[in-house]
Design goal:
alpha+beta; GMP Synthetase, Chain A, domain 3; 2 domains; three-stranded mixed beta sheet; 4 helices
């Protein structure tokens, strides 16, 4: 990613976060956080990655709300950013946080299991002495 693409991506996250928080009133929108934006090199398209508090039902509802408001969001974005072309927006749920939490929990379980096995081994070796 070039420096300019990175700067535009950061600016888009900032502006889109404000637009969604301040201008959208759709009740289907959950507690949404934009995690990152992938912008094409020519700035013609952008994939907006988000997370939302709640289960799969809330994710689907939030995605539906974002898709239905896509034109309004893009128009508001056009008023805020100074690009030759305002990118077409695609919204994508970011499950990396959930995946990370599952991995972390699994590591914790394995670590606990290893400690328990070590304690059993240490106890067995002391008993045999």
């Amino acid at each position: 990613m070039t420096r300019r693409t990175n700067r535009v991506s950061v600016q888009l996250i900032r502006e889109l976060s404000e637009i969604i928080a301040e201008e959208l009133t759709d009740p289907r929108l959950g507690l949404i956080t934009l995690t990152h934006v992938d912008v094409t090199p020519d700035f013609s398209a952008a994939t907006v990655w988000f997370t939302v508090h709640g289960g799969e039902k809330q994710v689907k509802a939030t995605l539906a709300a974002l898709i239905s408001a896509r034109r309004r969001i893009r128009a508001a974005l056009g008023e805020r950013v100074h690009l030759r072309r305002v990118p077409e927006l695609t919204f994508q749920y970011d499950d990396s946080i959930e995946t990370g939490m599952r991995i972390y929990e699994r590591i914790q379980e394995l670590s606990k299991h290893d400690r328990e096995r070590k304690e059993e081994t240490d106890s067995d070796s002391r008993d045999s002495e």
